[in-house]
Amino acid sequence: MPCVLFRILWEGLVGIPLSHLFGYNKGPWLANSTQHIFGGFASFYTAAWIYGIFVLWDKPWLWDVKECWIGYPFHEIPRSVWWYYTLEATFYYSLLLGAFFDVRRSDFWQLIFHHVVTLGLLSASWAINFVRVGTLVLVSHDIADVFLEGGKLPDYQIFNPLQVPYVPRLIIIMLVALFLLHIFWTYIIGKIVVRTIQEGEAADVRSDSEDEAEEQEVRRKRLTKTKQQTKKED
Q1: Of 47, 130, 179, 202, which is most buried with the most CB atoms under 10 A?
Q2: b vs e for 37-69, b when ≥16 Cβ sit within 10 Å of the residue's Cβ?
Q3: Which domain does 215 fall in, by range?
Q4: Which pTM does this prediction carry?
Q5: Which residues, at least 6 apart from 44, have a Cβ–Cβ distance to it below 8 Å?
Q6: Structural domain count of the chain
């Protein structure tokens, strides 16, 4: 799951802004990024799956499906499972009601039908104490939705290897390169200013490595010459 969370943040904070910059995403990048990070993908499906695993980790029916039927229907419902069911039902109720106030897309009625069926299953499974099976279905459903939402990521693609570059993108790339060079040169100038303040004289810090190399070469020659003279004297 850390990889999934990293992908969410990467797409929301880096991928979508860059896709907007390079012309792939025509909408407002801030709104798209916010919706991608704090929308259904990140704020519920991933979190709900993690919470579901946390709740069911010590439950026997997570590891052995037969436990869903042993002793049925006299199954006690732990408080953690009650909260898990309540949160899931609340989320889908909010989706059902919010759909009528949101922008209507082409699959509006399909989504409404999906939410109604989901809420019907949650209510029926709770009424007949099919909760153990219901929790397994919820966990499977939530992790599937994570990958389903991930299928939308190509809409935010940044690079298309089959697309021929054109001048505006090349200009942006060159401007970014120039900007990075200016940062580097500003750093060099800053070092010169600091050295001038500390030592009282200005010097080009770029020549430090060259001067050191020359000094080392002179020392090496002097050492070699001294050794030769010592051998002659012997």
Answers
A1: 130
A2: beebbbebbbebbebbeebbeebebbeeeeebe
A3: 167-233
A4: 0.50
A5: 91
A6: 2
